[in-house]
Amino acid sequence: MRGIVWAYNTDDAIAKLLEIEEDYGRLGIKPTNRVIGKSQTYIVFNNGDMWRVVRASDSGRGYATNISYIDRRISQETINTIIKPATKSWPFQAFKFYCPFSYRPGEDEEIEPKFI
Asked: Can you tell me the distance from the alpha carbon of 67 to that of 41, in angstroms, rounded to the nearest whole number?
């Protein structure tokens, strides 16, 4: 399986990727290759799964994934034009949204709901 954590902010997406690594660890699945940097970030696990961080912009075109973790701050237009075409796992729901710990909306600000 291939997974992508779509980044609004790279540091927040890396934090989410490390959470995913912890979840795999609880299942007894160890990483075999791990690269964490500003230009390229991914983890390959011993069961063959690969997760990477991709910036949610035009540079994210051309990737293919089975499941997408999407930062809630990413615009609906970007989801429709870049993320949805990259996610190929129908008929299953393969979109998960996350709200990074570093982002907290103000009192008057609401997190806009996203529709897939």
From this structure: 17
Token pair belonging to 59 = 């540079």
pLDDT per position as a tens digit, 23-60: 999 999 999 999 998 789 999 999 999 999 999 999 88
Query: Residue 38 to residues 14, 22, 42, 96: CA-CA distances in angstroms?
Result: 9, 21, 11, 23
Contacts of 86 by beta carbon, 8 Å cutoff, 6+ apart: 4, 60, 61, 62, 63, 64, 65, 68
Q: Is the peptide bond before 113 cis (omega within 30 degrees of 0)?
A: no
Segment 69-87 shows an average pLDDT of 90
